[in-house]
Amino acid sequence: MFFRRIPPLEDEAELFQRVETWRNNISQTKTTALYDAVFFEKLTAEKGLDFATAFLFHHLTHHPRYAEAIWQIQEFQKREELAPIAKEAIVALIPGAFYGEHPETGADGQTIRETATQLGFQAELVPVQSVGSLTENAQIICDWLHQQPSVPIILVS
Predict the structure, then answer these.
(1) Domain coordinates of the chain in residue numbers?
(2) pLDDT, tens digit, for every residue of 103-130?
(3) Among 15, 34, 37, 99, which is least packed by CB within 10 angstroms?
(4) Among 100, 77, 90, which Cα is nearest to 120's?
């Protein structure tokens, strides 16, 4: 499916105002329902990708099921600095199966570790076996945890 190209809007506030106006004019039966892929394909074709993306953002931030979680994320992002305890924490990534043989899958958690580092955390890869058994890898994780300093550890798998 090809989408009609619409030049990007110069003002984000204007875009969100157009979205809100348009949303108020559509059927009120969809105010709390989740829209489907067909709806967004049509919306993108008619109004452009920026508009469809802004509509999805607006819908999710006003949907009773998601609004609170999104608000909490936005509030967290406003913080200038992480809590002092977070700066001491280690983000320990336990990689997925075959992470060594197929790094292109992202199972090695490189992206997560880079993000954690950018946020100021120390990030480490727990050296489990790429194709090890559950018992073997559980022992490796336990041993690794016992070797760490007495700081908070955030395990990510």
Answers:
(1) 12-76, 84-156
(2) 888 889 999 999 888 888 899 999 999 9
(3) 37
(4) 90
